[in-house]
Design a protein that fits this description.
Blueprint lengths: L4 E5 L5 H11 L1 H7 L5 H4 L2 H10 L1 E7 L2 E10 L5 E8 L8 H17 L3 E7 L3 H9 L3 E7 L5 E8 L8
Helix pairs in contact: 1-4
Length: 165
């Protein structure tokens, strides 16, 4: 590739690239469920900007290009909710998603006091499920997404973040 992918805290200037990348990356999920109204595809740019201001957001960069992103926040029960993990399709399968997860988990535990991490993924999203299980997440239940997609809920304890990927 000639350049290496770096992981860093997202900045306000990354909002548009994150927004476009998210739209590109979640097309496959939408097709998998026959539902193009899933949350990542209908999120507004302003909402992405709000998340950048309040949440723990990391990006993967290849030069100046944002090629991956993940967000996390602390929920009312003290868990860290991690979501909207995405990696540009041309760079998937190279460990970037696991690196993004590890960065978000570390920051959420160290800076925001998370004791456990929780994420949701569609029940047909086998690639995502493989990644999450590989880095220590275990299925703890199911839920229904606001878009009607059946979701699998996965969690792991914060002490396990150092061992991921």
């Amino acid at each position: 590739m000639g350049m290496s992918v770096t992981i860093s805290v997202a900045t306000e200037q990354d909002a548009e690239q994150i927004f476009r990348l998210q739209y590109l990356c979640f097309q496959g999920e939408a097709a998998l469920y026959g539902n193009y109204r899933i949350a990542p595809l209908v999120q507004s740019l302003d909402s992405v900007r709000e998340e950048l201001a309040t949440d723990c957001v990391f990006v993967a960069r290849l030069g100046d290009e944002v090629v991956g992103s993940v967000r996390g926040s602390i929920t009312e029960d003290g868990a860290a909710a991690i979501g909207k993990l995405c990696v540009h399709p041309r760079l998937q399968g190279h460990g970037i998603g696991a690196r993004l997860l590890r960065a978000a988990e570390a920051a959420l535990a160290e800076e925001r006091g998370a004791k456990r991490f929780r994420l949701h993924t569609g029940h047909r999203s086998e690639g995502h499920l493989r990644l999450y299980r590989r880095v220590g997440y275990e299925t703890v239940g199911t839920s229904q997404g606001t878009d009607g997609v059946p979701m699998i809920v996965l969690e792991k304890t914060a002490g396990a973040y150092a061992a991921t990927a």
